[in-house]
Structures are given as structure tokens and as C-alpha cells.
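Here comes an entry:

___
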Amino acid sequence: MSTQPLKLVADIGGTNARFALYDAKSGELNAPQTLATANYPSLEQAICAYLSQTQTQIDEAAIAIATPVLGDKIKMTNHHWQFSISALKKTLNLKHLQVINDFVAQALAILDLKDHEILPLVNITAQADAHAPKAVIGPGTGLGVSALISHHGDWQALASEGGHTSFAPRNELEYQILRYAQTLHGDHISAERFISGAGLTLIDSALAHLEQKTRKRTPEEITRNLPNDSTARQTVDLFCQILASVASDLVLTLGARGGVYLCGGILPKIQTYLQTHNPLQSRFNDKGRFSDYLANVPVYLVTAQEPGLRGATVVLKQHS
């Protein structure tokens, strides 16, 4: 086992736990590995499994996790893992442990992205305001939301649970899928119910129900069938249109003329479809009197590898 202390970075979602080792001297991330959260009873056991496999000792760690971080006790929103930060620090024998919301990490990673790691998708000729807030949003197991705000020459990432704001239907079809979702989940339907992996399945099932059919496909089955399946395309188009409305609401709320950065695990998998069909464009700008305002805000798809891990390294750098 290596005796050189390294720093652990982790990006913990409801489905996958991503780990890597940060070498402060070289600035590199080494030994990246993804573990399925379902295979481990706790975060501690997943971390120990990763450290055992990599035969590594650590002295510091930064963990980005898909849930609110409001104190010592952490309980995941879309998974059963829960833990005490102080107890985990003691168990792992760490000098320093920092736990942050996963989309705070995604936002911090934006500051480190190169031009080739972002793909313009909407309003591609628009020029972002370099000093205005930048909105960060992305569907995965849930819907993450954050933003970067300029403050005294530096950028601060906002911790947010904006994915749980109420879904606002725009047309009769969306009212119908809302009513279908309410039969399953009660009166309050959040944006995350539709803009997430489970949301793809929910939209697909709702569309089938409206045709008096029964269908329950996984997100992978839906996205894999995009080229040849009109029902899959209808599901993904509706998913993207709802995402575009929520993203443009976020821009108006924050004054995020610095651009929108789309992250998460789902969108990169349908990148080609987004580029060729662009189901986001018209809906993003469709805000009545503020359509011109939004038309001047560029929307980018983040194509970088493991942005959550890169954002966690920013936290370690800030501590050192």
C-alpha cells in the first residue's frame, strides 16, 4: 500500500458513486472509478472498497453528494445512504473532510472547463455577459440546480434544491401528464419528477396512458431507441422542452446572463439528438415579453469528463 498521503474526491449520486485520487503536487486526478451505490450498504463501505482496490491511504477528502448539506447529518434524497460527517471523518482517520452538494461541485467545475469541454446548444451566437451569474442545471437520478455568482472578483457557487420547485405545465398535453403524475405521487409534482432518469420513464408511461396503453421503459431503453422509435422521440422531446422552460425560469430568477450550463448524466448520452433536433431552442426563448432577453443568453452542454470530481478538487484547493 502506498504511504504517500493522497486526497480522495468523490461525486455521489443516487445511482453511481464516482471516486478518484487527487495528487496536489501534479494537480492530476488518478485512478477514477465508478461504483454502483446499490452494491454497498453505506457510503463508508463504498469508500473503503475503493481505497482497498486502489491500495491507497488518504489524509483529506472532499465529497460532493446529491442531497442538501445542512449540518453534520447527511441523508440522501434519492438513495438510502445516510451518515455523520464527523463520524465518517473519524472512521477514515482524516485530517480534513468537506462535504458539499453535488451541484455546488458541478458549478465549481465550470470555472475549470476548457472551450472543447462545452458544446453550444441554444442561442449559439449569443455572447455571455462575463460578469453576470451563470446558471447550472442538469438531470441525472434527480435534477440538480446551482449557479455561480460573482462576488468581489471571485465566483461563489450557490447550494440549491431548485429541482424540487413545482412543475408548471405550459399546454394541454403537459396538464395531462401532470394529472397522471398526481395519481402516482400526490398533488405536488416537482420539476425533478419529470426532468430526471425516473422522469423519462414517467413521461413515457404517461404518454402511453393517454393512448390507453401500458408502457414502462427504463431511461436507457428510451434513449437507445431514439433513432427508430417515434414514441421515444416524443418522450425525449417533451423531457427537453420541460427542461428548457425550467432553465429559462432559472435565468430570469437569477439574471443569469452569463449563460446556462447543462450537466448531469442524461444529456451527454443524447448529445447527437440534441444537436440534430434541438428540442430545447424554441422553448427556452419562449417567454413572452422576455423572449428577446433570453435570446441573448447562450446555453451550453457540458461534455467534460467527471465534472463533479473536478469541482470537488476545487474545494480541496481552496482549503490548502
The chain has two domains: 6-107+307-319, 114-302. The chain has a mean pLDDT of 94. The first helix runs from residue 43 to 54. The domain at 6-107+307-319 is CATH 3.30.420.40 (Nucleotidyltransferase; domain 5).
